[in-house]
Specification:
Strand order of the largest sheet of chain A: 4-3-2-1-5
CATH topology of chain A: SH3 type barrels
Number of domains of chain B: 1
Shape of chain B: globular
Largest sheet of chain A: 5 strands, antiparallel
CATH topology of chain B: TIM Barrel
Structural class of chain A: alpha+beta
Number of domains of chain A: 1
CATH architecture of chain A: Roll
Structural class of chain B: alpha/beta
CATH class of chain A: Mainly Beta
Number of helices of chain B: 15
Oligomer: heterodimer
Strand order of the largest sheet of chain B: 6-5-4-3-2-1-7-8-9
Amino acid sequence: MTAEVQKYTLAQVEALELAPGAEHEDLEGWVPTLATDADLRDALDKALDYRGDVTLTLKSGERFEAFVFNCKSGPTLADSWVQYYTPSAPEKRKVGYAEIASIEFTGKDRAAGKHWEDWIKKYSEKKAAGETNIGLAPDRLD
Amino acid sequence: MAIPISQMGTVAAYVLKKRLSGNKRYPLVLMLEPLFRCNLACAGCGKVQYPPHILKKQLTPEECFAAVEECGAPMVSLPGGEPLLHPRIVEIVNGLVERKKYVYLCTNALELKHRLPEFTPSKYLTFSVHLDGQREHHDFSVCREGTYDIATEGIKEAVRRGFRVTTNATFFDGTDPGSVRGFFDEVMDMGVEGIVLSPGYSYDKAPDQNRFMGRARVRRLFRAILSNRKPNWKFNMSPLFLEFLMGKRNYECTPWGSPAYNIFGWQKPCYLLQEGYAESYKELLETTNWNEYGVASGNPKCANCMVSCGYEPSAVLEGFGSLKGFLAMVRGSFSSYRDEHALKLLNDPPPQASLVQIEQPERAHELILEETNQ
């Protein structure tokens, strides 16, 4: 929890009727400009929350797809790293913030278009069309 | 309470041993997620929104056993994803049973019936079947028609074969408490050992972010559901945790009580939040700033949480940690929680449109009172 996050008082928590859910930015396709260290940190924070792959390009020129799931954010870029899986390697990998030249949100957002309202709309349409065994299927893995 | 005495005894002895050794943070249930792949696509789920290469990854049995041995929890829950999609799930379950861990295999039961011959009934193994309510409610909740019928066939076959079976329900905003009570009747008639239930949590990665109840609404709903209980209803949960859901008790979160391990590592700080991963359980305990979590912290991400993985350990620790707590637990196991006001809540209109487009069954106060007294 970062210091700038709004805290609730206990009374507010106990009186809460509906929980404000997370607001997800539409990041699919986003290519942030990394002009400063803060830009890079902000982009990697967003990559951690992103429900899809990103493409990282390193200062060495290496470029790869990655699902970023962990980080250590230290005082300097040299003390900081992200941990990720790539589609082609079985093991977890790490790369230092200081090695990253660019980040692109190239992968599909795996939760986009899957809201409760989307399901109700789809259900209603299919029901009206007389369909039976209506349902959502998981995304294909190949 | 539906939990067998041998299991309660194991947990009580474990808690006592930890207390006597002065250990302040220890796990009760390991949430061991062997994979994230699932054969359903529920809108409320925050566990399966990953790219295909992540969904194809899975823990090996050896990784599962190492995690179990490292943290030492007496109970292991196998959620997911759908664990029955793991090609080595039988090997994992058998290895955990050999280690005398009480295993809860959480499944949507779409594959259960035809996989049952591969498993051996044991007091250590429970199939915890995901059912969110009566047929229409469940099918709509998991976004696929027909799942209730398949799951209940699996339940009945598992019961017939001598397995321990519980049902496991998550409730979101719009839940009809009267229908939930009808659902309890249905599953108890199927012969399950007990019912497990929880309010939904606003997973950051869930597609839908608008249907998660806050604490005030959770307490109203669970007071309506869990008051005036029928004698045949059994719950595979701490009675004190159920009182917490009904608003009769206050607890602080015990996030280390149900640590989560999956392909990413040991999840910080708990099963619900994903704020980084540790390589070991020891590292998880030592590097997580626990003061930043739980309702008292003011952390907005914990504000609506009343979920069992954080608060049931608190209830269990109270129940086995003092004579007063133990007596309260025993009392709660046998109480019907008579509550006239809760009966009125059953007929209140839901706070927003019902989850399911079916008629809400009319339930007269007198009828329910009569049923409660049976």
